[in-house]
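2024-03-11 09:14:02 INFO queue: dequeued item Adenine DNA glycosylase, len=450
2024-03-11 09:14:02 INFO validating residues
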Amino acid sequence: MSQSSTPREKLKKKSRAEKPEEEEEPLGGDIEDLFSGNETQEIRMSLLDWYDTNQRDLPWRKRRSESEKERRAYEVWVSEIMLQQTRVQTVLEYYKRWMLKWPTINDLAQASLEEVNEMWAGLGYYRRARFLLEGAKMVVAGKDGFPNQASSLMKVKGIGEYTAGAIASIAFNEAVPVVDGNVIRVLARLKAISANPKDRRTARNFWKLAAQLVDPSRPGDFNQSLMELGATLCSVSKPSCSSCPVSSQCRAYSLSQENRTISVTDYPTKVVKAKPRCDFCCVCVLEILNLERNQSGGRFVLVKRPEEGLLAGLWEFPSVILDKEAGLATRRNAINLYLKEAFHVQPKKTCTIVSRKELGEFVHIFTHIRRKVYVELLVVQLTGGTDALLKDQANDTLTWKCVGSDALSTMGLTSAVRKVYSMVEAHKQGSSVAPDSSNRAAISRKRRIS
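2024-03-11 09:14:37 INFO prediction written
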């Protein structure tokens, strides 16, 4: 590198000197050197040979002809979105059901968000499903067909750098890298990189390393081999170094052999996760009896969450987020006020309470939230019947509907909402359900659906 500095370079140096906390952390070697030419070739050959023999048989890895590249791209896209933050074994059945219902991107583009949410129910991170649907509609509506380069794929709703690289390399044979958690772990160990992997500069350096390694003749297979190695042999806590095809090129492994105080699992650096904030939610399962129609069971009120934010567009039982942990009286007052404002449900005025029972509580963990959920079952008979409730709804900005137990059992609901309903079913059957992790959250305001 030239020793002279341009004015811009001097300005950058001055800026970095003024902000030492933003200096790039050492990467266990000169990152500009990357891998040597021989290292690159050896890693490519070793990984591809290993992958050809040991790759898992997964439905989205099905080979397709040149004329079916766009079909393959769609399959890779769906699988990669599903696999984000989710184990392969969990994704397998979801992927199969998804492809049976929407085998092509054109089929998906015709779907509604509610259909997609129902299919996605249980996978979590529901925004992924919404973006997948919006992206499919965007591609189908375009005039240029399925984008076949990473740069153009990144213009599609919900496709970031990683997903674009996966689709472009696997489906269209473009020599571009992919970097996910598995790849970061493999690269950090290969180069013994001790820098914080969450640091922006360090993250870009991982992309540089991955880009150097990509095999130009088999980019898709190479990227999958790198991810496969991280998902299987090069695991977080119990790496199988003796079986690893690139252990001879792994600096972390070499260091661990030279110094027993060093472990391969020291890389990448463990990042302390932010402690999730705690909040509290009371859920009221509102069951409406209609004795005039001789119904053996009631209908349950479901509320649709806002189209933006946590669990956007999904259905839930009426609920209220509390500022802090509260006793039974405070929780019931909050629920009573909400039911009055949203549905005109007021004991002795618009309805008769048949029964009201606390069913228990459980904790549900979101990425950044630890939510304690209190559940109650409120069974009422409306003075004017269900039709009066639908006709005279107090808040016309709320999207809600009434469903029977049969429909509720088959709807695509989040794991937390299902947990709440399982508590209701157990109560009706005279048993109890042990609390475990599930979910619920804040309240929405949208127009009613009949």
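2024-03-11 09:14:37 INFO annotate: The mean pLDDT is 85.
2024-03-11 09:14:38 INFO item closed
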